[in-house]
Design brief:
This protein has 276 residues and is an alpha/beta fold. It has helices at 46-49, 67-77, 98-102, 104-114, 132-135, 152-158, 165-177, 198-208, 225-236, 240-247, 253-268, and strands at residues 6-10, 17-18, 26-27, 31-32, 60-64, 86-88, 119-123, 142-146, 181-189, 212-217, 272-274. Helix 2 packs parallel to helix 4 (104-114), helix 7 (165-177) packs parallel to helix 8 (198-208) and helix 8 packs parallel to helix 11. The longest helix is centred in the last third of the chain and has 16 residues, at 253-268. The two termini are 30 Å apart. The structure holds iron/sulfur cluster (SF4).
């Protein structure tokens, strides 16, 4: 990323919002934009709806500085008595580097904990370790860590702003060790590039103490194709067509990956949920 990060402090009208992800009732997105700047990110479509049209994904972050206060108000006004889990986050990473300074995620977690809402985190950052004092308060809470590959060249090319995968594994181990439920999210699995260390990754996840791992394939959508193409050309001297072949209906590529995942997971005692 060559451009300088543009940080805007903004106020949100609503922070506890219904999620469009199947099986997830609520999501909290404390930020708009994401410093992790993953090239395959779907959330880039948010730029269009938040006044950032035409700006490079990863070059801006809006910090919802009033989020904890708004959350508190929303929870007080809420009539429903059921307490469905709240996901952090669906279109940003709640533990991107700016969270160290702003603590918007931490303060929202504090509010949810007071109201006894189960919390589900999915992140690429070990900054989540800072908040284990809060996350350890409820047995239903869980922390997931996304890892696409143990190959640092692949990680750096596709997730230039995120921490190295080994740090994420170490964080999972530490969180599991504190009795908090954890899971791994292996995805997107990028044809030819992110499968070289698949066995090692599954073994490492099993050893880290996660309860299960989700596996997902690469999906080309929401405008991520040009960015993926550029990464393939620049870092791997590859044409996107080789990748697209693996994604075509009828391709056996992911069938083979599925078999590998099942075999390695069985070998290392990891519960695997393949979602492609
Ligand atoms: S961490 Fe998630 S939200 Fe952030 S850029 Fe990567 S995929 Fe997108």
């Amino acid at each position: 990323m060559s451009t300088q990060l543009q940080i805007n402090e903004v106020t949100a009208k609503s922070i506890l919002n219904p999620s469009r992800i199947s099986g997830v009732t609520y999501a909290i997105n404390p930020y708009v934009g994401c410093q992790h700047a993953c090239s395959y990110c779907f959330a880039r479509f948010m730029s269009r709806y938040t006044g950032h049209q035409g700006e490079e994904w990863g070059s801006f972050v809006d910090v919802k500085v009033n989020a904890p206060r708004i959350l508190q108000q929303q929870l007080r006004r809420r009539k429903k008595t059921t307490k469905d889990p709240v996901l952090f986050s669906s279109v940003t990473d709640a533990y991107q580097p700016l969270e160290r300074r702003y603590k918007v995620t931490r303060n929202c977690i504090e509010v949810l904990s007071r109201h006894e809402f189960p919390i589900s985190i999915l992140t690429k950052s070990d900054l989540v370790l800072r908040d284990l004092d809060l996350l350890g308060r409820q047995s239903e809470n869980e922390v997931g860590m996304t890892i696409i590959s143990l190959d640092e060249k692949v990680r750096r090319a596709f997730e230039s702003g995120a921490v190295v995968s080994k740090r994420r594994l170490k964080a999972l181990q530490e969180i599991s060790g504190q009795g908090i439920r954890t899971y791994g999210f292996v995805g997107p699995i990028i044809p030819e590039l992110s499968t070289a260390h698949l066995e090692e990754l599954i073994r490492n996840l099993a050893e880290s103490g996660v309860s299960y791992a989700l596996f997902d394939r690469l999906n080309i959508k929401y405008g991520n194709r040009p960015v993926i193409e550029q990464v393939l050309r620049t870092h791997f001297n590859k044409d996107v067509t080789t990748i697209l072949d693996a994604l075509r209906p009828g391709s056996l590529y992911y069938e083979d990956i599925r078999t590998q995942i099942m075999d390695y997971s069985q070998q290392y005692g990891l519960e695997a949920d393949i979602i492609f």
